[in-house]
Design a protein that fits this description.
The protein is mostly helical. The chain has one domain (3-151). The protein is built from five helices and no strands. The longest helix has 35 residues, at 81-115. The chain is elongated and about 55 Å long.
């Protein structure tokens, strides 16, 4: 199994566990109505998920990924300005991903209600850890790929054998 797939699966598992422990009971796995979806995905819930995901990434996910891939040597952690700049950028990335996930849930629910002529009070796709983790891993992978492409275009790599 390739390292990128392992990293993505681990991110999905971590996001699913954050959803399970921090949000699933608050948003409710069942029994919500579309009117309550706004309450289920309130700013408090989104803010809490962002804060917990950022902390989980900093404390658990990123160190485990660096250790598992062999890229981490103790003493080479980001320090000073790199840490100061990378933390707010990571918070912005996680916030954008969470907002996209909320939009995805809203679009999926609206789609299923209209296509299958369901009651407008129903929530066919409630917040749950498996789909949440899958969406988080997918969007994180897309963001990382886009950021790496942008970095590669803005900061070209030096060519050694020119």
């Amino acid at each position: 199994m390739k390292t990128a797939l392992k990293v993505t699966l681990f991110r999905m598992w971590a996001a699913g566990s954050v959803c399970f422990f921090a949000a699933w009971g608050r948003a409710g796995p069942a029994g919500d109505t579309m009117e309550n979806v706004g309450e289920a995905f309130s700013f408090n819930l989104i803010g809490g998920l962002v804060a917990i995901m950022v902390l989980a990434d900093i404390i658990i996910v990123n160190p485990v990924i660096r250790l598992a891939s062999g890229k981490r040597v103790f003493g080479e952690e980001k320090k000073g300005a790199m840490f100061v700049f990378s933390l707010p950028l990571h918070m912005i990335k996680v916030t954008v991903i969470m907002l996209i996930i909320v939009g995805t849930y809203f679009l999926l629910n609206t789609f299923f209600i209209r296509v299958f002529s369901l009651d407008t009070q129903s929530v066919p796709v409630p917040l749950e850890p498996l789909l949440f983790g899958f969406l988080y891993g997918l969007y994180y992978l897309i963001f990382d790929t886009a950021i790496n492409l942008i970095k590669g275009r803005l900061i070209p790599q030096s060519k050694e054998n020119v």
